[in-house]
Structures are given as structure tokens and as C-alpha cells.
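Wed. Picked up where I left off yesterday with S-adenosyl methyltransferase. The coffee machine is broken again, so keeping this brief.
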Amino acid sequence: MARAYDAALGGKDNYAVDRALLAQLDAAVPEVRSIALTNRAFLIRAVRFLCYHAHIDQFLDCGSGLPTAENTHQIAQRLNPEAEVVYVDNDPVVLAHGRALLEENDYTHFIAADIFRPEQVLENAVVRSRLDFDRPLALLQVATLHHHGADEGLHPVEVMRRYIDALPSGSYVVFSHFLDPENEDSALAQRVQGILNAGISRGYFRTRAEIEEMLVGLDLVDPGIVVADDWWSDGPRLGELPAAARCIVAAVGRKP
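Structure written out below (C-alpha cells, as returned):
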């Protein structure tokens, strides 16, 4: 999925099989790339908000994906050059590319771990040495949990509960997820889910109630759980959102 996202964002770190998956999705849902673009734009705005307004200077980015334009460390370190960022992924291609890219960045690190097994991440020596759990930090689960099935190890709600429980008070969670809007757009969501689950990838569109359950224990920053494009948009919308962009929601929450 990391390479498919890279292809959707216009990156070059992907292969023919990844572009074939994207082409299949494009054929079924022509505007499907808007999911990736909307999600990346939300990430940029959320990290900028946390650095500038919440004064967060340490980030744990789970399921970082392949390095592309405007990654978490680039956004954060533009505002605070000493912001610490630890990326987590278990894709060997992601780790190789990431470590090569960040060789000379003393404040940014990649670790290999399964983000759906929180203890692997939270007990990692690099995470514990580079991030200070005695003061607030930001956990990023951006477009991750919708690739994890409820029957694949820990339930997604339990995954998030363990992460949230481990965060110190005053920490923030940045979160986005595929949405089953339970309206006329649900047919599109089901088409995309069917294509993803027919191959080696996985993708699950969940209802608002299911997504809310993953964020229990957080005070959601206004405007709460909204279509990702609407989370503190950079300006007024000049046209209608494509249906695909209405099928991914985002939120930022603070742990009391």
C-alpha cells in the first residue's frame, strides 16, 4: 500500500504492480486519487497546527509510507528545526528509502515495527530514547487503521486504545480513516473496498460510529470528525468535492 499511495501522489518509488492496482482503482472510481491527495493535505495542515498552535515538538508517525513531498519531519522542522520525528513502518522498501533519505538528519529516525501491535512500537528502544514520554507528543495514525481488519490480530479499537493509554497527558492524536458514509456514496466505498480486498492489499470503509469508537479518550479539536478536506481547510472550496474525497474523514484529538 505504501507504494500504491506513492503512485497516487505522483511519486517515483513504485513498481508496475503498484501502478496496476492504482489503474484498476481509477477505472472503477475515476476520482480515487483524491483520497490520497486529500489525506496528504490534511496531514500537512494537522502537523502545522500542532507545531505552531499546540507547541508540540515530538512526533511518532505510524505507517509513515514512502518518503515523498511534505513529510511529517519536513513540515515540523520547517517550524522547529529541532522537532523530533520517529517514523514507523514494516515495509523493507519504505525503511531502505527512508533511512537513506534521512542519513544526515539527527532529529528524524525510522524504525521497523508492526504498527498494529502497539507494544512493538511503544517498547522500541529508539522510540523510548528519542521521544520523551514525560511530556506531550503527537501520535500520527493517518490512513493506517483502515488497512487493518477487525479479525487480523488486535481489533482496531484495541490498537488505538493501547496507543492512547500510553500517551502522556496533553498529547495529541492525528487520525484519518476511510468512511462508509451510509448514504449514496456507500456504493463507491464498497467498490474500492472490493478491489483492495481482492488483491494483496486490504482496505475497510467503516461507519462514523465505528471510527468514533477508535478515538474514545480524546477531546476532539473543533470541528471534530469531518471529511478530511474540511479539517481546517486552507481556504474556501471553489467546487464540489468528488465522492471519493467524501469517503475519508479526519480528526485531531487531545488526551486530557
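Quick read: The first strand starts at residue 58 and ends at 62.
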